[in-house]
Amino acid sequence: MTLQVLDSGFRSLLEEHAVLRVLATDFIFTEGPIWNPKDQYLLFSDIPPGIRHRWQGNKATIELTPSNMGNGMTYDDVLNLLVCEHATSSVTRFSGGRREVLASHFEGKELNSPNDIIMAADGAIWFSDPSYGRMPGFGVERPCQLDFRGVYRIPPGGGALELAVEKSMFTQPNGLCFSPDEKLLYINDTEQANIRVFDVEGGKLKNMRVFADGIADAAQPDRRPDGMKCDARGNIWCTGPDGLWIYAADGRLLGKIAVPEVVANLHWGGAQWQTLFITASTSLYALKIRVGPHKESFMSGYI
Q1: Which whole-number Å values give the CA distances from 261 to 20, 28, 63, 157, 239, in the listed order?
Q2: Paired sense of beta strands 41-46 and 30-36, if any
Q3: Backbone torsions φ then ψ of 65, nearest 5 degrees
Q4: What is the residue-wise DSSP string for 57-77?
Q5: How far, in whole angstroms, is CA 175 from its chain's centroid?
Q6: What confidence tens digit (pLDDT) does each residue in 53-104 have?
Q7: What is the largest CA-CA distance in the chain?
Q8: What is the CATH number of domain 3-299?
Q9: Residue 250: how many CB atoms within 10 A of its CB?
Q10: Rounded CA separation 299/294 (Å)
Q11: What is the DSSP letter of 29?
């Protein structure tokens, strides 16, 4: 594994002599990893064939098919699974084998294709809505009904869907994550190759500024910001050229981790939450690290 160290703080994040391991392969395009802390397994999506996989006991098995081309996933505070579905342009919740649609339309029109999703401590659900799930291979090819690509909030307990950003702000919003205290929300844009950060006040986003930009390489046009997570120290881990780019909370680029395939997303799990699971094109990878995730609602009691 190749590391590009740009700041001395980078080495404190990784286990010495850490090895990037292939856990499973021969998929088409993996995405949406999420760790179940109660039963100790990882779920991840293989979008093109519409399959949700489970990795447990050193092997991957099929959890659900068809999965409506599910992409990003997370859990709510009682471990119901929340899923962004490309084929149905919906955000759904799975509880006791029952599928419930939480969001599918805005202003009377279908959402584009919900992509990445997180849940705040207050129970609000936030998700990005680019148009990738309406493109061949990653969804069902069809025209968009909305003329913009937004980021949305589902209020705690449900209610009318709220557009959280200006309609013209994003080209293709994708990964999103909170800071450890949830006073900041980071959102990246794949096409613009940047990360924006907002103050979160009363469920509203304020004071937008660009946290990082230039996350692109002309020689690697398919490697741009996609999945993104925040660790317990407030560092931001974002996919990009070569693999993963890690930023300090003050915006300094600490370093990069090379991954041999195009990385789509990442999530912590395993014992003490110090295994980083990485979904990258045809494979699921794992890397031992020294820092865990910031505590999300579904991790309460397990971290």
Answers
A1: 12, 12, 24, 39, 11
A2: antiparallel
A3: -155, 135
A4: TTEEEEEESS-SSEEEEEE-T
A5: 5
A6: 999 999 999 999 999 999 999 999 999 999 999 999 999 999 998 999 999 9
A7: 53
A8: 2.120.10.30
A9: 7
A10: 9
A11: S
